[in-house]
Amino acid sequence: MTKDPLIIYFHDEKKLAQKDDSEFFNNISRIGKETSIQVTNIEQFTALMNYLDPATDVYVLVHIMGDLKSKNPDKDYHGEAWGLELSKKYEHCNYYFVTTSNNKRPEIIDGRKVYVLNEFYRQAVKNKSVDFPSQTIREINKQQPANSAAGDSNDKTDVDFVILTALYYDEMEEVKSAFNITEQHRFNFGKNVGYYFVFEGNRIVATSQAQMGMVESAILSMECIYKFNPRYLIMPGVCAGEKKTEFGDIIIPNKIHLYQAGKISDDGFEKEVVDVKIDEMILERIKPVEKDIVKEIFAKIKRSKTKKEEFEKFLYKQFSTRVDPMACSTMVVDKKGFFSDNIKTVDRKMVALEMESYGVARSAEKFDNRTKAILIKCVMDKSSKKNDKAKKFAAYVSANFVKKAIEKKIFD
Questions:
Q1: pLDDT in tens, 127-175
Q2: Spelled out in words, what is the top-level CATH class assigned to the domain 6-141?
Q3: Hey, where are the domains in the chain?
Q4: pLDDT digit string (tens) for 303-335?
Q5: What is the 3-state secondary structure (H, E, C) of the chain?
Q6: What predicted TM-score, i.e. pTM, was given to this entire model?
């Protein structure tokens, strides 16, 4: 028995209800170790109530709808009626009516608001605007029924920003550090791991690619746009800079070139201009504050004894910002003279090179008109003599630039 708060997810999908009850009764043995359990019929719920200590705080999420494509939704899904029956029989429990669909749902049942499941997580776990025990999204989310898979158009959540990095190590680690993200913010969507949090009143999802490259960035960007419908896709991270840049310089591209595009024949390689432009409005809003932001980050590092010692070798000069074209590559470049010989020849104003930006920007441009992409990269090398010594430093500067840009309401 347990007196710890217990979350019961009551989902009466017919297929689930036909399962052998042995799995449910096996789950009972884990109560006290687990704080959430799924039941699929009233008999299971009654058995659970008989097992629990009467003093246990019980929070019941009653799933009122199932698959809206069902030919007999009223026959196959009885969540609403059964939830009302349970609430009258076990009045000491806290009941919440939820659904994975925003379509055809009632607003109120028996005086209780009906929540879309993802919205409920946000309000209960993050904003605390719903009276609910502090459990992680990951823990509650595991009780979702199989038919509410990520990517279902009926399970779509609107957020303000998706912060996307090419790598977890260094890049996402610095994002997590900047925004104080912990594992309690973690959740799964599709085959990806994300972190949901609220910062300065903005709903934000942070996630990182499983592999480097613009194919991976395009796939993940499209999934995030479809799933979360963000106002902005923001990609911080590291890049290689031209010879005139310094470690720590922030690169905000106004245009991204796919510099390897073209035709190769017996006569040689004929370059083709393939690029994607970044929304001019957001660039114009960044320009008045970009230099102030890097000064603030520089000063922040200087004030921190730990960071100052860690990044001391890169603080010999105040880093700056550049709003200029950037190149996107399918390969890592570590060759002296390559940038000037192969990249500057596409656009003489090109200042940086990396491997993901084109996929992010093109996905936002192609998918819809709502989501805008903005890239905020930081120079970690000069595309030759690579050693990654400045990688963590560059990731730190980039992540903190994003944080300060949000604080200054640049994206509002």
A1: 555 555 544 334 444 444 333 333 333 344 578 999 999 999 999 999 9
A2: alpha beta
A3: 6-141, 161-407
A4: 999 999 999 999 888 889 999 999 999 999 999
A5: CCCCCEEEEECCCHHHHCCCCHHHHHHHCCECCECEEEECCHHHHHHHHHHCCCCCCEEEEEECCCCCCCCCHHHHCCHHHHHHHHHHHCCCCEEEEEECCCCCCCCEECCEEEEEHHHHHHHHHHCCCCCCCCCCHHHHHCCCCCCCCCCCCCCCCCCCEEEEECCHHHHHHHHHHHCCCCHHHEEEECCEEEEEEEECCEEEEEEECCCCCHHHHHHHHHHHHHHHCCCEEEEEEEEEECCCCCCCCEECCCEEEECCCEEEECCEEEECCCEEECCHHHHHHHCCCHHHHHHHHHHHHHHCHHHHHHCHHHCCCCCCEECCCEEECCCCCCCCCHHHHHHCCCCCCCCEEECCHHHHHHHHHHHCCCCEEEEEEEEEECCCCCCCCCHHHHHHHHHHHHHHHHHCCCCC
A6: 0.65
For domain 161-407, give the CATH superfamily: Nucleoside phosphorylase domain (3.40.50.1580)
Are 6-141 and 161-407 in the same CATH fold? yes
